[in-house]
Structures are given as structure tokens and as C-alpha cells.
């Protein structure tokens, strides 16, 4: 009995954790009980998809039209999009946790209810849908199900649809390298190193082009830590390539395109892209940074895969694309796409952000929905990653970390120094990460790089989110206790977090006390750090507490992102923009000289000096 009681208590703790995680929205694909699906094919039912060949002009996205019919229509009938097109039981892994292998063991990559575009479907049995597909290295089929999501019955399967070259190189993601004059390009393809050699052809815009080889990574089902990533959510990720473009001239514009040389001597190319190289650390020039967390992805076709879950995602993406000429670098600080173990969603996310990530560095941090899984070393023992346990984030995006599995790193952009923490691993005093954070903050030359920014996923500083207020700490438990003395000692200007799906800005603060009462224009020494929650980029919003705190200057229960603009070494503009229209709804300025950074404040200088 003691053993049973222990198990019951353990399960209760797990479910409590899950309930907290799920309160912000389930992964919609998890609502489909695909392992319960049965065959109920009806000769009078059909699904027809057109066109059958996509990407004839090298497009990486296309619209497909479905016509379908069922002699026994119902309001809960739905269409599932499957890729690969063959989703039969022959593909089931042996470890699938059922007594007998199910008919279906692969979740669809998206789904939509049959009456979405045809309200009369439940009466006439006839309907149509327009669905948006991206090139994901395999063919597609469309299946009509009755029985709703909980008891699916396969009624009809369509003809197969495929891109002309499903293996084509797609969705480049730029990121800063470990050196200031290095840019990395990461992309996905269906070509392994035994089929073709990957490279990037690049050079100054209008100048001579050179070729830089790319390294290739992939992973298999055994790299996943649990279900659904290891079972119904598994999908072959293809091959992820990264090339390092070195010795760039500061602020110069370069063009590039992705290439694969097949072993028969022919080439496969992507379209041409361009980027602007990063400024030299300390360079005095206009520098514009966008920061947000928890954006996730959404579907342009309205498929209800993410209805009521990440509604702000497309708006945020749209506004960033509209203003891209005024953005130099982007930081997405955790909870990247909420795949939660459904691997296909990472391709769909990289397709969504391609116009941004192919043009400016797209730097990420790791969040709970990328890393957390019991028994894998994550600081939190929940199941938020859906069994991915960090593998997807580490493979799909490059970060200039010494060890990408640890995912903490620093990066310089002109007058900015960014220190990016990994909140899913221990950050407390005495840990390896704590030592990294202190080194990152201590090693910057503030005369050359006056703007010191701390980034992390979970709120290690201050937040009025209801979940934190209920705990009484207004922070991630044990969040600032170790770190606030570092922020104060090294005079961090702004700390930005995700995780809570809203926007909030504090006063400059240290040890729960506002060190400056000004709200919109800071002149001279801040005397503390301004903390910002910017996790409202797309995922379902989370409410604030009704309690009022003196340190909370601005709150917004809406979707948005922040932008920092450094005009020079003395002037910085902070803006909060809403995703719905891109307009500014909160802002402040900092104006100061180098001597203001050097000035001693509480706990920022030794208590005794030789002079004293």
C-alpha cells in the first residue's frame, strides 16, 4: 500500500503540473485520438485534391483545393492532412503503447472540420476546403473522418499531392556566429550527405560570390525522450544544414542562396536572399532590436489546428515583416512554436518566419515547451516539451553557445551586449550557468557597449501575472534571489522575459524598491534594472492579478512585442507595439553619458575604496 500511495502522490504531482501547463491551451493535435481510429471506408464517400503537383515555379508554399462528399454527413466530421501520404499501420513503431498496433499511428500535420467552408455540409454531404501547404519533404493525402476527434472513423482518402521537388532547400534561418563578423545560415532539406553536398553561395551585393560548405545534422525517433514526440507526433525532420559566413564587413549588404550539388553533377538552388552584416562591437550607428517570447505559429488557411490557441502569432509575424526594413536583429526568447512533440510543426513555424529569419538574425532562447521533460536534467520535471527535451530547438536553430544543449550564450550587436539565460536549467548561485551569467555581465566594456540587456524565458525578475501573484513572489520561484545582486552590480539596463502571455514594464528596481520614479524619460543613472514581460507575441493570453504593486508601471492584456532603438552611446528608445496594428502603446527613453554608468549606486561599487 505504501508503494501505491507513493505512486498516487507522484501522479497527482504530475497532473497538477500538467494542469498548470495546459491552462494556457492544449496542443490542438493532441485532441485527436488517432490511436483509436478505425476503418469505415464508404464507397460513396470521396475526397479529391487539386492541383496534384505543387511548386512548379519553385514555390515553397501552395494552396490546395479539396472537394469531398459523404453519404452520412455530421457536424463533427473533419479532414486531416497527412504527410507522408501513406499513414497506415505499417509505419507504427513497435513501442507504441497499445496492445495491438492501431490502424493509424501518425497524427495529421493539420486538420479542419468539414463544414468550415461549407455550412450546408451536414445537410448536403458535400463540401470544399482550401488548405495552405508548405514543402515538408514528402507527399500529402487528405482523409475524411467521421466520429469527431475522440472516436475517428476513416471514411475516405484523397489522391496524393506532392511538391515538384520535395527535397528542395527551404526556410533559411540567419543567426549571429561566435565572432562579431560571422553570420550563420541554417536551413532544411531532404538531401542527406550521401546524396548531395550542401553549401551557401554568397558575397557582397553586386560583387563576386564564393561558396561556403555546410555541416549537416539530423536525428531519429530514438533521440526523443517520450510521447508524443516518440510516437504519434513523430515525423522525419529531414536534414538540417548550417553554413558559417566569415570575415564580413560591418553593415555591408550580402546576397546568398542555398545550394546542393548532387552526386550526378547537377545543382539544386533556393531563391536568392540578402542580409546586412552586424556592426562592429561598440560601433556608433543606428541599431534596432525586436524582442518577444511565446509567439508560436498559426495557420494562414484558418485551419483550426491553432484556433483559440495562438491567435496573435500571424499578426506579430505580419507586423515584423511590414517593418522589416527598420529591424536589425530579432530575439525570440523561448516557447518557439509550441510543437509539444508534434515534429511537423517546426517546419511550419520556420516557413512562417522565413521572410524575417532569412533577412535578419533570428536569435532564440529555450523555454519550457522546448526543453522540459521528467528525468532529463531539466530544472522543472514537467512534460511541456511533449518529449522533445530540447532536441528540436537545438537542431533547428543555431545559437552561439559553447554547448547548444545548455543553450545559454552571449552575443554582441554594435552598442548592445545581450546575455541570454536558459531558465529550464539551474541558474542559482554556485551553478555553471550562474558563473556564465556573471562573466557575460562583467566582461562587457560599457564605454563601447553601454546598453546591457538580460534575456530569459521564465520571469526571473518581476511580473504581476496571476500565476506568479498567487505564489506570492511575483516571479519564478527562486528567480531573482540569486541574480538581482548581479544585475545591480553590473548595472543591467533592461531584463526581458517571456513565459507569461502579456506585457508589463516595471520601474527601475532593486530588491522590490523602485530606484527611480520617472516613467517615460530617464536621464542619468537608473540605479536599478527595468524588468519587462514580453510573452504576448502569439500564444493565448494570461491574466494579471487584481493586486496593485508600486513597481508595475504599465500592463497590457494583449498581443505585442518590444523594440529597442539605440541612436548612439547615450540615447536609447524603448517601445512596446501591439501586434494588431504595429502602433506604439508604451515607451520610454534613456539619456545618459558614460560617467552615469560608472557612478556608484546601492550595491554596485565596493563599500570601501583606497580613496575613502
Automatic annotation (TrEMBL):
<keyword id="KW-0378">Hydrolase</keyword>
<feature type="domain" description="Purple acid phosphatase Fn3-like">
    <location>
        <begin position="47"/>
        <end position="165"/>
    </location>
</feature>
<feature type="domain" description="Purple acid phosphatase C-terminal">
    <location>
        <begin position="528"/>
        <end position="587"/>
    </location>
</feature>
<dbReference type="GO" id="GO:0005576">
    <property type="term" value="C:extracellular region"/>
</dbReference>
<feature type="signal peptide">
    <location>
        <begin position="1"/>
        <end position="23"/>
    </location>
</feature>
<dbReference type="InterPro" id="IPR015914">
    <property type="entry name" value="PAPs_N"/>
</dbReference>
<dbReference type="InterPro" id="IPR041792">
    <property type="entry name" value="MPP_PAP"/>
</dbReference>
<keyword id="KW-0964">Secreted</keyword>
<dbReference type="GO" id="GO:0003993">
    <property type="term" value="F:acid phosphatase activity"/>
</dbReference>
<feature type="domain" description="Calcineurin-like phosphoesterase">
    <location>
        <begin position="288"/>
        <end position="503"/>
    </location>
</feature>
<comment type="subunit">
    <text>Homodimer.</text>
</comment>
<dbReference type="InterPro" id="IPR025733">
    <property type="entry name" value="PAPs_C"/>
</dbReference>
<dbReference type="Pfam" id="PF00149">
    <property type="entry name" value="Metallophos"/>
</dbReference>
<dbReference type="Pfam" id="PF17808">
    <property type="entry name" value="fn3_PAP"/>
</dbReference>
<dbReference type="InterPro" id="IPR008963">
    <property type="entry name" value="Purple_acid_Pase-like_N"/>
</dbReference>
<comment type="similarity">
    <text>Belongs to the metallophosphoesterase superfamily. Purple acid phosphatase family.</text>
</comment>
<keyword id="KW-0325">Glycoprotein</keyword>
<feature type="domain" description="Purple acid phosphatase N-terminal">
    <location>
        <begin position="172"/>
        <end position="276"/>
    </location>
</feature>
<dbReference type="InterPro" id="IPR040974">
    <property type="entry name" value="Fn3_PAP"/>
</dbReference>
<keyword id="KW-0862">Zinc</keyword>
<dbReference type="Pfam" id="PF16656">
    <property type="entry name" value="Pur_ac_phosph_N"/>
</dbReference>
<protein>
    <recommendedName>
        <fullName>Purple acid phosphatase</fullName>
        <ecNumber>3.1.3.2</ecNumber>
    </recommendedName>
</protein>
<dbReference type="InterPro" id="IPR004843">
    <property type="entry name" value="Calcineurin-like_PHP"/>
</dbReference>
<dbReference type="InterPro" id="IPR029052">
    <property type="entry name" value="Metallo-depent_PP-like"/>
</dbReference>
<dbReference type="GO" id="GO:0046872">
    <property type="term" value="F:metal ion binding"/>
</dbReference>
<keyword id="KW-0732">Signal</keyword>
<dbReference type="Pfam" id="PF14008">
    <property type="entry name" value="Metallophos_C"/>
</dbReference>
Amino acid at each position: 500500500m505504501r508503494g501505491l500511495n507513493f505512486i498516487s502522490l507522484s501522479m497527482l504531482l504530475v497532473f497538477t503540473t500538467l494542469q498548470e501547463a495546459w491552462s494556457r491551451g492544449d496542443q490542438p493535435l493532441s485532441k485527436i485520438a488517432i490511436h483509436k481510429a478505425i476503418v469505415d471506408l464508404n464507397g460513396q464517400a470521396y475526397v479529391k485534391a487539386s492541383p496534384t503537383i505543387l511548386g512548379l515555379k519553385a514555390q515553397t508554399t501552395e494552396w490546395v483545393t479539396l472537394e469531398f462528399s459523404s453519404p452520412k454527413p455530421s457536424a463533427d466530421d473533419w479532414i486531416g492532412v497527412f504527410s507522408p501520404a501513406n499513414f497506415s499501420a505499417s509505419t507504427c513503431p513497435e513501442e507504441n503503447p497499445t496492445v495491438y498496433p492501431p490502424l493509424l499511428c501518425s497524427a495529421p500535420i493539420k486538420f479542419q472540420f468539414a463544414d468550415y467552408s461549407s455550412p450546408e455540409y451536414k445537410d448536403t454531404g458535400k463540401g470544399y476546403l482550401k488548405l495552405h501547404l508548405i514543402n515538408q519533404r514528402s507527399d500529402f493525402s487528405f482523409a475524411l473522418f467521421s466520429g469527431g476527434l475522440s472516436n475517428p472513423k476513416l471514411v475516405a482518402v484523397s489522391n496524393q499531392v506532392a511538391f515538384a521537388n520535395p527535397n528542395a532547400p527551404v526556410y533559411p534561418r540567419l543567426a549571429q556566429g561566435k565572432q562579431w563578423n560571422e553570420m550563420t545560415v541554417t536551413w532544411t532539406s531532404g538531401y542527406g550527405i550521401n546524396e548531395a553536398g550542401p553549401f551557401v553561395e554568397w558575397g557582397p551585393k553586386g560583387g563576386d560570390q564564393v561558396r561556403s560548405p555546410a555541416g549537416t545534422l539530423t536525428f531519429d525517433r530514438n533521440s526523443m525522450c517520450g510521447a508524443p514526440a516518440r510516437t504519434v507526433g513523430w515525423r522525419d525532420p529531414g536534414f538540417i544544414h548550417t553554413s558559417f559566413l566569415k570575415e564580413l564587413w560591418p553593415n555591408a549588404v550580402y546576397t546568398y542562396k542555398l545550394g546542393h550539388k548532387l552526386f550526378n553533377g547537377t545543382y539544386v538552388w533556393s531563391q536568392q536572399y540578402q542580409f546586412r552584416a552586424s556592426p562592429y562591437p561598440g560601433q556608433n550607428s543606428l541599431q534596432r532590436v525586436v524582442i518577444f517570447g511565446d509567439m508560436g505559429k498559426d495557420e494562414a488557411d484558418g485551419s483550426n489546428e491553432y484556433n483559440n490557441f495562438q491567435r496573435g502569432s500571424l499578426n506579430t509575424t505580419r507586423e515584423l515583416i511590414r517593418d522589416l526594413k527598420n529591424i536589425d536583429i530579432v530575439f525570440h526568447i523561448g516557447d518557439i512554436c509550441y510543437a509539444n512533440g508534434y515534429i511537423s510543426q517546426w517546419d511550419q513555424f520556420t516557413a512562417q518566419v522565413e521572410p524575417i529569419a532569412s533577412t535578419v538574425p533570428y536569435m532564440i532562447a529555450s523555454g519550457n515547451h522546448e526543453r522540459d521533460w521528467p528525468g532529463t536534467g531539466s530544472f522543472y520535471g514537467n512534460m511541456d516539451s511533449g518529449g522533445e527535451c530540447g532536441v528540436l530547438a537545438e537542431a533547428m536553430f543555431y545559437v552561439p553557445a559553447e554547448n547548444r544543449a545548455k543553450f545559454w550564450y552571449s552575443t554582441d550587436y554594435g552598442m548592445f551586449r545581450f546575455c541570454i539565460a536558459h531558465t529550464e536549467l539551474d541558474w542559482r548561485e554556485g551553478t555553471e550557468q550562474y558563473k556564465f551569467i556573471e562573466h557575460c555581465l562583467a566582461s562587457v566594456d560599457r564605454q563601447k557597449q553601454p546598453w546591457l540587456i538580460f534575456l530569459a524565458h521564465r520571469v526571473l525578475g518581476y511580473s504581476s501575472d496571476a500565476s506568479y501573484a498567487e505564489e506570492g513572489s511575483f516571479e519564478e520561484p527562486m528567480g531573482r534571489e540569486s541574480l538581482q545582486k548581479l544585475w545591480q552590480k553590473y548595472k543591467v539596463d533592461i531584463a526581458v522575459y517571456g513565459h507569461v502571455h502579456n506585457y508589463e514594464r516595471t520601474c527601475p528596481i532593486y530588491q522590490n524598491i523602485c530606484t527611480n520614479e520617472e516613467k517615460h524619460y530617464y536621464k542619468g543613472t537608473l540605479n536599478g534594472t527595468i524588468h519587462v514581460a514580453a510573452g504576448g507575441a502569439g500564444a493565448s493570453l494570461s491574466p494579471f492579478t487584481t493586486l496593485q504593486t508600486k513597481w508595475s508601471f504599465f500592463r497590457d492584456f494583449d498581443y505585442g512585442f518590444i523594440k529597442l532603438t539605440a541612436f548612439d552611446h547615450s540615447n536609447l528608445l524603448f517601445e512596446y507595439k501591439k501586434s494588431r496594428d504595429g502602433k506604439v502603446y508604451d515607451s520610454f527613453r534613456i539619456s545618459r553619458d558614460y560617467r552615469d554608468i560608472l557612478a556608484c549606486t546601492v550595491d554596485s561599487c565596493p563599500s570601501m575604496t583606497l580613496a575613502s
